[in-house]
């Protein structure tokens, strides 16, 4: 006689894959970007990242206790939110501001909806939006990378050698849009955008680090290629259109794709499965929507960068996209 | 004429679990245990449940019809041994929960072990000697049902569909479930019997094209059947097609899609589009029924898994208790944690070791604690993160997470809006789910709830 038999519905075997593994993959893929942030902005950057991660995890733990739910910190999703939020903050942001952002991101962005899987908006972007609304000045002051090459022409008007802040390439490109001149000068910053030797948010400065992480996620099968492809292709098309129309006021597509948060968005933010559509068609719509919206804000809108608003707006549309993109069975609709 | 066409055909979605067929694929079919008692289920097929034709205390012979139903979609059942009807009682049934079964106590003296019939078939078999109507009647009388798992009465399937002029017969030798090797061994050892059955099925169903589909992980079976076809009279117009090794390749809707690029409409069955799909074990049973006049009373069962002492393939009387078979194989090991009737993807976990083997039981798989820990444990589920993996793997292009969650919150109408009825319960969605959600289990529950609702409300 066999003792203690388990009886569950089929199937009885499964793929060795779990939410925790997916989240761990995302954390690993963010390591190059975190390293780049540490390299260019030194200790303050790492302290900021650690602060965000710890306060995000603590908030999740407290919320779970409050809701009398099992502790869900084991799935590492709060770690991912913390890192992504930190990477989207300016390097010299005061620590207490980062704590407020993380608490808001987890508590209001995620836990009030019911925790992992139930939130409508990307928690990290909610946290960032809250900080932007509350501390507008702090959120748009950009530190010069510690390793900046003094011989390189500064793209900001402030050319004094002891400058501690500078405009980002995108701020400069916005200036070009407004004055209809100077875009070519910004284009010369392409190399700095690739390596990360320029002003900007913590994690968005180094395109190479972000690409390495993105390729890792794609290779591991953790994320699907559709959303990154949708974001980057649509943004490239928009940027190319502008560049073709007037290269004096619009910077080149390559500069657009490597500057600002677009790579971080394409591989790590827009691909958050919880807040993106389920179906293939829906994901294309979502990706293209995010990419076009970013470029609209950058090229036409008032802000130099639009990743956060683009993601939040498309998050809001996700339930609607899912509703319109319902799958029809292979065998067609049943005749009922 | 080209007999062998390499079509690495496949279908959309699906998964590729570890095959684990090495446990039993080298083991030839052996005689099973001499049953002291068998329980013949009155429902071993899709369709109307049989009525018992014998009473308690009656003496029955092996092969005697003991249950039948006049309905078209039904199949009679036969005693698999000589003995006496001990009882007519409820037994654990994998689909219906509990169902009536005839318990037959074996005659201790006169009970010879039934020999398989494969020796009676050779390359010179001529199906032309049998009329289509005769074959169809023999199939019905022998109680043959789809032995791959669904148990749809074969007589109904092989009725020629006059509205479809071009009919195709696909012989399903895919055996895509991990662990199971019963069909593989039947193809290797009973080759000529299978081919005889194929020819008879072709005559009965009046199909113009015949394709034997085998997954590319069974090169030996492909070769054996090809060689046998070359030796056969009129074997040249039977094509062997290799299909990609992928689960659920052996599901007929997916197989038809992979081989013929045809789509069976949702809620319809293959004969409606002029395709008949028969499992290799079923064709072997057809040959036995038509030529040797023997009903379906025995089948090959693979007893396998890491939790069994001596795995193997056995020719056993239908009605044999699972516990008896496990004992026959040296018993379960101490680590055994789950007994599954069928394979690990679609099989049903049982706790009652007196559950009998039915016409559709291809395997008994015993998994260990260790294997369960590495796969899916009930209760370890986390919230759905909408990753969409279930949508990507669903061979029927459904949205499993949407259906399952609708069922979970008792929104049956919403589940129907997401085409719950089109689900074939293959289990791919649960297999890939990173959150460990019982998607297939929930969808099955939803279907049962809908069926109950329909019965409660008369039209």
Number of strands of chain A: 0
Average per-residue pLDDT of chain A, rounded, comes to 87
Note the run of SSEs of chain A as H and E: HHHHHHHHHHHHHH
The major beta sheet of chain A can be summarized as: none
CATH superfamily caption of the domain at 4-26 and 116-291 in chain B:
NADH-ubiquinone oxidoreductase 51kDa subunit
What does this structure look like?
- The complex is a heterodimer of chains A (336) and B (459).
- Chain A contains 14 helices and no strands.
- With 336 residues, chain A is mainly α.
- Chain A folds into two domains: 19-139, no CATH class; 169-324, no CATH class.
- Chain A starts with 18 loop residues before the first helix and ends in a 12-residue tail after the last helix.
- Chain B is of the alpha/beta class.
- Among the domains of chain B are: 4-26 and 116-291, 3-Layer(aba) Sandwich (Rossmann fold), CATH 3.40.50.11540; 389-456, no CATH class.
- In chain B, strands 2-15-14-18-16-17 form a six-stranded mixed sheet.
- In chain B, strand 6 (65-68) and strand 7 form a beta hairpin.
- In chain B, helix 1 packs across helix 4 and helix 3 (182-189) runs parallel beside helix 5.
- Classes of the chains: A mainly alpha (336), B alpha/beta (459).
- Chains A and B meet through helix 1 of A and strand 16, strand 17, helix 13 and helix 14 of B.
In short:
Chain A is built from 14 helices and no strands. Chain A is an all-alpha fold and about 325 residues long. The model of chain A is unreliable at about 155-165 (pLDDT under 50).
Element layout with pairings:
The complex is a heterodimer of chains A (336) and B (459).
Chain A: H1 19-66, H2 77-87, H3 95-107, H4 123-134, H5 136-139, H6 169-179, H7 183-187, H8 190-195, H9 207-220, H10 226-245, H11 253-258, H12 262-269, H13 280-299, H14 307-324
Helix pairs in contact in A: 1-2, 1-3, 1-9, 2-3, 2-4, 3-4, 4-14, 9-12, 10-12, 10-13, 13-14
Chain B: E1 4-9, E2 29-31, E3 37-41, E4 51-52, E5 59-60, E6 65-68, E7 77-78, E8 83-93, E9 97-106, H1 132-141, H2 154-157, E10 168-173, H3 182-189, H4 191-205, E11 209-215, H5 219-231, E12 238-243, H6 252-260, E13 275-279, H7 280-291, E14 298-304, E15 312-317, H8 322-328, E16 336-341, E17 348-350, E18 363-368, H9 369-373, H10 389-393, H11 400-408, H12 412-417, H13 428-432, H14 439-456
Parallel strand pairs in B: 1-12, 2-15, 10-11, 10-13, 11-12, 14-18
Antiparallel strand pairs in B: 3-9, 4-6, 5-8, 6-7, 8-9, 14-15, 16-17, 16-18
Helix pairs in contact in B: 1-4, 3-5, 4-7, 11-14
């Amino acid at each position: 006689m066999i003792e203690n038999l388990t009886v569950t519905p089929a199937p009885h075997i499964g793929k060795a894959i779990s939410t925790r593994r997916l989240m761990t993959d995302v954390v690993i893929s963010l390591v190059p970007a975190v390293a780049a942030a540490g390299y260019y902005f030194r200790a303050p950057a790492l302290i900021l990242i650690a602060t965000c991660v710890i306060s995000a995890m603590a908030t999740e733990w407290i919320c779970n206790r409050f809701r009398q739910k099992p502790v869900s910190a084991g799935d590492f999703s709060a770690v991912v939110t913390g890192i992504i939020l930190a990477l989207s903050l300016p390097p010299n942001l005061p620590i207490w501001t980062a704590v407020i952002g993380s608490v808001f991101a987890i508590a209001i962005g995620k836990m009030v909806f019911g925790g992992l899987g139930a939130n409508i908006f990307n928690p990290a972007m909610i946290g960032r939006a809250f900080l932007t609304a509350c501390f507008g000045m702090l959120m748009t002051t950009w530190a010069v990378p510690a390793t900046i090459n003094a011989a390189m022409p500064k793209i900001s008007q402030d050319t004094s050698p002891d400058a501690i802040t500078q405009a980002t390439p995108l701020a400069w490109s916005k200036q070009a849009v407004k004055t209809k001149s100077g875009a070519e000068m910004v284009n010369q910053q392409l190399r700095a955008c690739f390596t990360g030797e320029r002003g900007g948010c913590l994690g968005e400065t180094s395109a190479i680090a972000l690409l390495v992480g993105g390729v890792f996620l794609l290779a591991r099968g953790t994320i699907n290629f559709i959303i990154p492809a949708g974001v980057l292709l649509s943004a490239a098309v928009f940027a190319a259109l502008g560049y073709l129309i007037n290269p004096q006021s619009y910077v080149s597509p390559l500069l657009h794709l490597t500057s600002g948060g677009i790579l971080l968005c394409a591989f790590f933010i827009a691909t958050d499965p919880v807040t993106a559509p389920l179906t293939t068609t829906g994901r294309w719509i979502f990706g293209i929507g995010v990419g076009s919206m970013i470029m609209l804000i950058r090229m036409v809108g008032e802000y130099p960068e639009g990743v956060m608003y683009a993601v939040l707006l498309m998050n809001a549309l996700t339930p609607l996209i899912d509703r319109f993109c319902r799958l029809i069975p292979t065998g067609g609709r049943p005749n009922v | 004429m080209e007999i062998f066409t390499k079509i690495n055909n496949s279908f959309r979605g699906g998964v590729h679990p570890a095959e684990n067929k090495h446990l039993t694929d080298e083991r030839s079919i052996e005689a099973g245990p001499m049953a002291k008692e068998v329980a013949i289920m009155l429902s071993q097929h899709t369709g109307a449940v049989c009525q018992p034709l014998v009473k308690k205390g009656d003496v029955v012979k092996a092969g005697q019809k003991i249950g039948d139903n006049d309905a078209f979609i039904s199949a009679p059942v036969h005693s698999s041994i000589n003995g006496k009807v001990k009882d007519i009682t409820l037994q654990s049934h994998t689909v219906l929960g509990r169902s009536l079964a005839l318990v037959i106590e074996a005659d201790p003296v006169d009970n010879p072990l039934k020999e398989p019939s494969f020796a009676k078939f050779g390359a010179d078999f001529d199906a032309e000697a049998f009329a289509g109507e005769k074959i169809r009647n023999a199939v019905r009388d022998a109680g043959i049902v789809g032995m791959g798992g669904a148990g749809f009465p074969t007589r109904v399937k092989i009725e020629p569909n006059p509205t479809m002029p071009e009919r195709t017969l696909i012989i399903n030798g895919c055996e895509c479930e991990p662990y199971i090797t019963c069909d593989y061994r039947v193809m290797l050892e009973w080759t000529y019997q299978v081919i005889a059955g194929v020819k008879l099925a072709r005559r009965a169903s009046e199909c113009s094209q015949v394709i034997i589909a085998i997954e590319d992980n069974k090169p030996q079976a492909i070769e054996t059947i090809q060689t046998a076809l070359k030796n056969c009279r009129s074997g040249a117009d039977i094509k062997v097609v290799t299909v990609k090794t992928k689960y659920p390749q052996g599901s007929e809707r997916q197989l038809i899609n992979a081989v013929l690029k045809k789509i069976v409409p949702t809620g319809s069955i293959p004969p409606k589009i002029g395709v008949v799909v028969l499992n290799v074990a079923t064709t072997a049973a057809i040959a036995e029924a038509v030529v040797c006049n023997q009903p379906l009373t025995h089948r090959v069962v693979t007893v396998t898994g890491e939790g069994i002492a001596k795995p193997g393939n056995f020719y056993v009387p239908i009605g044999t208790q699972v516990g008896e078979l496990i004992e026959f194989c040296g018993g379960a090991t101490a680590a055994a944690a789950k007994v599954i009737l069928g394979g690990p993807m679609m099989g049903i976990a049982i706790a009652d070791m007196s559950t009998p083997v039915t016409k559709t039981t291809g395997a008994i798989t015993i998994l260990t604690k260790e294997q369960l820990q590495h796969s899916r444990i009930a209760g370890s589920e986390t919230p759905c993160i909408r990753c969409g993996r279930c949508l990507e793997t669903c061979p029927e292009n459904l949205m499993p997470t949407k259906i399952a969650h609708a069922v979970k919150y008792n929104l049956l109408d919403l589940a129907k809006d997401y085409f719950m009825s089109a689900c074939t319960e293959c289990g791919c969605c649960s297999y890939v789910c990173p959150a460990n959600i019982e998607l297939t289990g929930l969808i099955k529950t939803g279907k049962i709830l809908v069926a109950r609702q329909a019965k409660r409300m008369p039209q």
